[in-house]
């Protein structure tokens, strides 16, 4: 049964990649000039938005994983994450990473933990699906301040993006019934440490948990065995390789979207195609529609939750080579987009009443955006400032999750 499902998955992936390759060739042959311009647009997006937002986190994540930080953090968070999300404690690193760096940073970290046999394939797939978020730089700086000229609306989109992502995760974790046998084998249990009696002793109080966390970190560092120079070189190499894969997909989809939309009759249909295909180009196309601001924000939230076919292929490029599936990922993206659309419309009027000066008025947009997308992209100085804020946000989220876990543990012991 598992072999048949694996064969079906490989066949569907082969058909999808073949269809994209054929469509790309047709687009280039049919309109070489627009295809070249679109590829330049995709390159500009990758270089000015994606590259500075993700690469530092990819390098940092691989170095911290080799140093045992997620494993040590997992000792403290394990009881909380297992009870709430049915995921191992190392998810306490994957989730803040995905919330601050954006996709596919969480997929890369989950794949690394899986290759080290710290988590199972099913856990890696669920971690990736749950921690798949757009970066705050994209939502607040590019979409909010750049596309919409309204940073407050960008902050609202970010909050709803996170809230709807958690809602989709809780829905699947409580109602999803996987038909595959995803229980780890005895060998996996020994490697992951689920049967280690010290892990149970670590849960008895916070102080033994801290000592056990340091012990886990040291054990993971010794098992990795690389020197700092070797580790830094490998981290940079792997990070740049992942960024090149992301850039390649963005260029391909920029060409396909540009050429396909030139044959579509209406701008609404073109925006729908762009939003379903690639998130950066899709959100820019949506902001050019003449809609009420609640409806515009809802469509942007839905597009951000779905995140595009391009992001799915980026994640699959990271997970597929190590044997991690993506069926749950697709379903969670659909739920994420649906929740974001509904929550935006539900929360808009209450937020307008509670924060009358922070959000735009409830009225029609009479002047849709018509400027070039490149003019809305951040410069390197703004990107550096956004990266600094994202780094601090990552630290604060980790501290927040640790505080919640320790508080929950003390309350459960009383």
SSE arrangement:
Elements: H1 2-30, H2 32-66, H3 69-84, H4 91-101, H5 105-115, H6 121-130, H7 136-147, H8 151-175, H9 186-192, H10 197-202, H11 206-224, H12 228-261, H13 267-277, H14 279-287, H15 293-306, H16 308-319, H17 327-354, H18 373-376, H19 380-413
Helix pairs in contact: 1-2, 1-12, 2-5, 2-12, 2-19, 3-4, 3-11, 3-19, 4-5, 4-19, 5-6, 6-17, 7-8, 8-15, 8-17, 12-13, 12-16, 13-14, 13-16, 14-15, 15-17
Describe the structure.
With 414 residues, this protein is an all-alpha fold. It has one domain. The protein contains 19 helices and no strands. Mean pLDDT is 78; it is low at 1-6, 179-208 and 361-370.
Helicity level, as a percent range?
A: over 70%
Mean pLDDT: 78
Total domain modules: 1
Shape estimate: globular
Instruction: Count all strands and give the number.
Output: 0
Computed over alpha carbons, the radius of gyration is 22 Å
Return the structural class: mainly alpha
Note the beta-strand portion.
under 5%
Largest sheet: none
Number of helices: 19
Q: Runs with pLDDT <50, length 5+?
A: 1-6, 179-208, 361-370
Task: Please write the string of helix (H) and strand (E) elements.
Answer: HHHHHHHHHHHHHHHHHHH
Q: Give the N-to-C terminal Cα separation.
A: 46 Å
């Amino acid at each position: 049964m598992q072999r048949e499902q694996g064969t079906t998955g490989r066949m569907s992936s082969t058909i999808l990649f073949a269809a994209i390759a054929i469509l790309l060739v047709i687009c280039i042959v049919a309109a070489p000039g627009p295809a070249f311009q679109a590829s330049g647009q995709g390159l500009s997006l990758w270089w000015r938005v994606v590259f500075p937002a993700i690469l530092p986190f990819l390098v940092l994540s691989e170095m911290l994983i080799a140093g045992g930080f997620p494993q040590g953090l997992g000792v403290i968070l394990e009881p909380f994450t297992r009870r709430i999300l049915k995921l191992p404690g190392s998810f306490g690193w994957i989730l803040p990473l995905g919330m601050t760096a954006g996709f596919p940073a969480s997929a890369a970290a989950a794949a690394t933990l899986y290759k080290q046999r710290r988590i199972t394939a099913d856990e890696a797939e669920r971690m990736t699906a749950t921690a798949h978020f757009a970066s705050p730089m994209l939502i607040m700086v590019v979409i909010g301040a750049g596309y919409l000229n309204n940073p407050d609306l960008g902050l609202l989109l970010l909050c709803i993006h996170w809230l709807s992502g958690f809602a989709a995760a809780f829905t699947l974790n409580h109602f999803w019934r996987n038909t595959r046998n995803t229980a780890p084998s005895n060998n996996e249990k020994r490697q992951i440490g689920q049967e280690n009696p010290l892990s149970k002793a670590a849960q008895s109080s916070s102080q033994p948990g801290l000592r056990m966390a340091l012990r886990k970190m040291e054990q993971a560092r010794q098992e990795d065995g690389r020197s700092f120079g070797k580790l830094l070189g490998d981290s940079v190499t792997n990070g740049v390789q992942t960024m090149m894969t992301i850039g390649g997909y963005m260029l391909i989809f920029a060409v396909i979207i540009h050429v396909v939309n030139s044959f579509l009759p209406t701008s609404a249909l073109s925006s729908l195609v762009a939003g379903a295909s690639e998130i950066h180009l899709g959100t820019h196309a949506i902001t050019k529609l003449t809609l009420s601001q609640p409806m515009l924000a809802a469509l942007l939230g839905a597009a951000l939750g779905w995140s595009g076919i391009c992001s799915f292929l980026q994640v699959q490029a990271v997970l597929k080579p190590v044997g991690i599936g993506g069926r749950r990922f697709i379903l969670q993206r659909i739920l994420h987009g649906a929740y974001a659309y509904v929550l935006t419309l539900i929360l808009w009027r209450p937020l307008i009443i509670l924060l009358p000066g922070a959000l735009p008025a409830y009225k029609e947009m009479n002047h849709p955006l018509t400027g070039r997308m490149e003019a809305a992209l951040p410069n390197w100085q703004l990107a550096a400032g956004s990266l600094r804020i994202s780094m601090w946000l990552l630290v604060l989220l980790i501290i927040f999750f640790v505080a919640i876990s320790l508080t929950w543990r003390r309350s459960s012991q009383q």
